[in-house]
Amino acid sequence: MNAAYIYLAVAIVTEVIATSFLKASVGFTRPVPSLITVVGYAASFYCLAQALHTIPTGVAYAIWSGAGIVLISIVGWLAFGQKLDGPALLGMGLIAAGVVVINVFSASAPH
């Protein structure tokens, strides 16, 4: 696997962790979840910046945001009991399909 995609994967995971703890920080009123949020977002942006050395910005951002949306929705469902209705699931499926199309068929994505 290309190092840029490893950075991008780490950026996605740390962003999802940071967003999960943002909910748990209760508006930055709880110190530990707040600290995890700030450190997580900093790590995510650092890794995203490293990925952008190789992956075009539009492609990297589409993958980062699309995968992040799907993963944080799953975390919200599992950890916070948030409901996902049919249109939400369909939309996330379309986002995931878009990420696959970019990676498999786009000449813009490094292979």
Notable characteristics:
mainly alpha, 111 residues, flat
Structural notes for this entry:
With 111 residues, the chain is mostly helical. The chain has one domain. The chain has helices spanning 3-24, 31-51, 57-80, 86-105. Helix 1 runs antiparallel to helix 2 (31-51). It is flat and about 45 Å long.
Summarize this structure briefly:
The protein has helices spanning 3-24, 31-51, 57-80, 86-105. With 111 residues, it is mostly helical. It is found in: Cell membrane.
How far the N terminus sits from the C terminus, by CA atoms, comes to 9 Å
Which structural class should the secondary elements be placed in?
mainly alpha
Mean pLDDT, all residues: 92
Unreliable runs: none
Q: Using DSSP, what is the number of strands?
A: 0
Strand/helix succession? HHHH
Radius of gyration: 15 Å
User: Residue share in helices?
Assistant: over 70%
Number of helices: 4
Strand content: under 5%
Overall 3D form: flat
Domains (count): 1
Multimeric status of the protein: single chain
Q: Summarize the main sheet.
A: none
Q: Topology, pairings included?
A:
Elements lengths: L2 H22 L6 H21 L5 H24 L5 H20 L6
Helix pairs in contact: 1-2, 1-3, 3-4
